[in-house]
Amino acid sequence: MAPGKTAILSLRIEPGLKEALRAAAEQEHRSIANMVEVMIREYCGRNSVALAEQPAPIYSKQSRAADETKSPRTKKDA
To answer: What Gene Ontology biological process does one annotation of this record name (predicted)?
Structure first.
């Protein structure tokens, strides 16, 4: 959980999108709320949208895998 206070976000989405979100969260072993936060942070990072305050980055498994393929670790790095 991010440090400090959190804000409540209430929204309506199509049932299919909600199910996709639930499935993505389950796949990542996250809560739905945390999955939404991760998706927003990743979107902002990819699209140069500044965040007011940014704690340590939260990466999804796919983002970590992509980062690892960009800069493979060597024995020296480990």
So the answer is: regulation of DNA-templated transcription
